Amino acid sequence: MAAKRVLIAEDSSVIQNLTRKILIIQNFEIDAVKDGEKVLSKLEKKKYDVIIMDINMPKMDGMECARQIRSNKDPEIANLPIIAISGNAKNYTEEDFKTVGFNDYLQKPLDFDFLVDTVKKYTDQ
C-alpha cells in the first residue's frame, strides 16, 4: 500500500519539523510549506490525502486558505480533509473552523499522539 501523503502548512520550523518527523515514523509521506499561498500551489501539482494547517501564517492565513481550497473547481482538492492547528484559537470558535471548511482542530502545544490519531482518522491508515 502506498504511503498516504500529508501536507503540513506551518510557519514555525520547530513545529513543522516535529510534526514531519512524527508522521514519517508512522509511514506518512510529508511535504511542508510555511504559508497558505504555497499550500495552494502544492495542491495544483500533487495529490494529498490530508492537510494539517496552522491558522496564523504569513501571506495567507489558514482560514483564507481553507476557504480557497473548499471553493476549488477540482472536487478532489475541494473535499480534502483539512486539520486546523492553532495556539490562539480564542480568536475563533470551533464553529468558525467548521464554517470555512476545516474537518478537525488541534490545539497547540500539539499532543502528538492525538495528532497521529487524527491524521489516521482521515487517511484510514
UniProtKB/TrEMBL annotation:
Keyword Phosphoprotein: yes
InterPro entries xrefs: Bact_response_regulator, CheY-like_superfamily, Sig_transdc_resp-reg_receiver
Family annotation (PROSITE patterns): RESPONSE_REGULATORY
Single biological process term from Gene Ontology: phosphorelay signal transduction system
Residue span, Response regulatory domain: 5-123
Sites of 4-aspartylphosphate modification: D54
CDD domains the record matches: REC_hyHK_CKI1_RcsC-like
Entry-linked Pfam families: Response_reg (PF00072)
SUPFAM superfamilies reported for this sequence: CheY-like
Sorted UniProt keywords: Phosphoprotein
Superkingdom to which the source organism belongs: Bacteria
Protein name: Response regulatory domain-containing protein
